[in-house]
Design goal:
The chain is mostly helical. The chain has one domain (about 5-275). Helices cover about 80% and strands about 0% of the residues. It contains 11 helices and no strands.
Length: about 280
């Protein structure tokens, strides 16, 4: 069956996939509420552990290692970006498995819609969800604790938007592995733990061993978290952070290209071996 082409047809397909994903969140809002609450829970957990271990010197020790005394904002920025990664991996990566369980994956793949359009449609929903997550978690926290930081919040948001592009590429890559191995949930949890550990979610990446910092350097969240902290807490601008932005843009080109190539290769193999018919 020929694939539908043309700007209008592609836009209609993207809109349909987008609204389908959005309706899932509106009809089952519990997951989204959990995404909103978890950054605060993790931040309070880390804060409580630091106070318990560090005692009266906790704030001073934290400032000596991070360069800021604003523990709440520092940690909430890391938590919010981590939760954004969580949303993208869960939605883009696991979506195909959910379709398979519901029995609709075959119909979607038989539809005259390009696979890339299908994956992009899933990503569009996540842009709305992560935007809401950012302003509800980071925006509210910063405006309450640091009034007058609206301009910094918007710069941090732009940084997050650029960082979402390579994240979607990681989601494409993960979707390919779902087609091959079927059970994504263990891989999802492992990947989320890797993100939390290697990207400086709750501590500077410089605390990690040198060889692990090399791994951190290929993850987009590392640059997003670091840049957002410098913008919000150190009043730096996007112009000052051109180096990190350049790396993010390079990753934004590399990850989607690699992720989609791997996805297509695994999809092609699954079509030949009959993997799509296996539960």
């Amino acid at each position: 069956m020929p694939t539908v082409t043309g700007l209008r047809a592609t836009a209609e397909a993207l809109a349909a996939i987008f609204w389908k994903g959005l309706k899932h969140y509106t009809r089952y809002p519990g997951g989204f509420v959990l995404y909103l609450v978890m950054p605060f829970l993790f931040t309070l957990l880390i804060f409580g552990m630091g106070q318990f271990v560090g005692g009266s010197e906790a704030a001073l020790n934290f400032a000596a290692r991070t360069g800021t005394t604003n523990i709440l904002v520092y940690e909430i920025l890391g938590s919010a970006v981590w939760m954004t990664s969580w949303v993208v991996v869960e939605d883009v990566g696991v979506a195909l498995r959910d379709e398979q369980i519901k029995g609709t994956l075959e119909q979607n793949f038989l539809a005259p819609v390009n696979r890339f359009t299908l994956l992009i449609g899933l990503s569009l929903t996540d842009i709305v969800i992560t935007t809401t997550l950012f302003f509800a978690v980071v925006g509210v926290t910063v405006m309450v604790t640091m009034p007058g930081s609206f301009f910094n919040i918007m710069q941090a948001f732009l940084t997050l938007l650029v960082g979402l592009i390579p994240l979607f590429g990681i989601g494409f890559l993960f979707a390919g592995f779902v087609v091959r191995f079927k059970e994504p949930y263990v891989f999802t949890q492992i990947l989320n733990l890797i993100f939390a550990t290697l990207t400086g979610t709750y501590y500077p990446v410089t605390f990690l061993p040198y060889w692990i910092q090399l791994l951190s350097g290929i993850l987009p969240q590392t640059y997003v978290i670091d840049s957002m902290r410098k913008i919000v807490l150190a009043n730096q601008t996007l112009v000052n952070l051109y180096g990190s932005l350049f790396i993010l843009l390079a990753l934004a080109l590399a990850y989607p290209t690699l992720g989609y190539a791997v996805f297509k290769q695994l999809e092609k193999k699954a079509t030949v071996t009959g993997e799509f018919s296996k539960y």
